[in-house]
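Render this sequence as a predicted structure.
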Amino acid sequence: MTKRIQLKVFAYPLFIVSLVAAGCSRSASGPPAALESAKVPATVNTAFSQASGQTKQIETSYVSAFQNQDPTAAFVELQKLRAQHDLNAQQQSVVTRAWMTTMQQLQAAAQNGNQSAQAELQQYISTR
């Protein structure tokens, strides 16, 4: 990859995360923080414990991919979860915080040469 593409692949997602975090904040305490990796599965499971149907299936797939340390699959599933229209405020907050963590992991995987992570980041950037 050229340096210009590398900059786009890694700088733009970080910029987007910053914008999302700033835009999602409604309190004086600042933007929500990314979830600690170890807390993602339990926090997401708790937030979606009452979910049903397709939303629950997507949530389960996301948590499974996250626990299997597959950042590309986790990112794809989390994008699907973010697109669900029936999320309550708590679920939206948890998804935003989990998205930040998952994006960090996807970027790290891409930087470490994971080609599927690189491709997913490029696809994400190209659609924004």
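Summary. The chain has six helices and no strands. The first helix runs from residue 3 to 24.
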